[in-house]
């Protein structure tokens, strides 16, 4: 499971992990969002996540706190990209500029990249409002679930070179 603030690099890390470990990567955004940024209803979404997490092996990329427990029940590893807010804000702004008016490869058809103040606010307040709760949840996981908290690109590169090589 790869979680963290938008712009932290979940998609990039997940793709790299998928290549190294020869595992399928599922970007939850591709399943949650429908054309024109239409959200999936909560009950349908929970069922979709149960089905995605039911596979024998996977890399699931995304937060979606309402279904996090479903994924945690099946996860053997959680990677929390705990990046600083300015880094995440910078990266989402670069992403908006790079893909403006087009669909990103990790998004479903019909969801063209756009600037959205609500999304900007979500990223700007993620660490302030969500980080502590997320860390508390991770601290209570059973010992058979490996948890990695990575705070910058250097730590991610080191993790990929050393830890993943031994999985």
The CATH homologous superfamily is termed P-loop containing nucleotide triphosphate hydrolases
Beta-strand percentage?
A: 5-15%
Total beta strand runs: 7
Count of all domains: 1
Helical/strand content category: alpha/beta
Compute the separation of the termini in Å.
15 Å
Give the radius of gyration.
Answer: 15 Å
Helix content range: 40-55%
The number of helices is 8
Shape: globular
CATH topology tier name: Rossmann fold
- Biggest sheet statistics: 3 strands, parallel
List keywords for this structure.
8 helices; 7 strands; 14% strand; Rossmann fold; alpha/beta; two-stranded parallel sheet; 167 residues; three-stranded parallel beta sheet
Structure in words:
The structure is a single chain. By secondary structure, the chain is α/β, with parallel strands linked by helices. The protein has one domain: Rossmann fold. 49% of the residues lie in helices and 14% in strands. It is built from eight helices and seven strands. The strands form three sheets. A three-stranded parallel beta sheet has the order 1-6-7, covered by helices on one side. The chain has a two-stranded parallel sheet with strand order 2-5. The protein has a two-stranded antiparallel ribbon with strand order 3-4. Helix 5 runs antiparallel to helix 6. The relative contact order is 0.19. The model has no long low-confidence stretch (mean pLDDT 95).
């Amino acid at each position: 499971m790869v979680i963290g603030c938008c712009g932290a690099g979940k998609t990039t890390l997940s793709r790299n992990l998928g290549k190294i470990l020869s595992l399928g990567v599922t970007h939850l955004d591709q399943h949650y969002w429908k054309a024109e940024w239409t959200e999936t209803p909560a009950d349908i979404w929970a069922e979709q996540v149960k089905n995605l997490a039911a596979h024998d092996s996977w890399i699931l990329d995304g937060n979606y706190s309402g279904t996090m427990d479903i994924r945690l029940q099946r996860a053997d590893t959680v990677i929390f990209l705990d990046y600083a807010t300015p880094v995440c804000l910078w990266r989402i702004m670069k992403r908006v500029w790079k893909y403006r008016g087009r669909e990103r490869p990790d998004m479903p058809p019909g969801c063209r990249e756009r600037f959205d103040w609500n999304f900007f606010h979500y990223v700007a307040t993620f660490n302030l409002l969500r980080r502590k709760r997320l860390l508390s949840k991770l601290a209570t996981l059973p010992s058979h679930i490996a948890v990695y908290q990575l705070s910058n690109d250097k730590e991610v590169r080191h993790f990929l070179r050393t830890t993943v090589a031994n999985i």
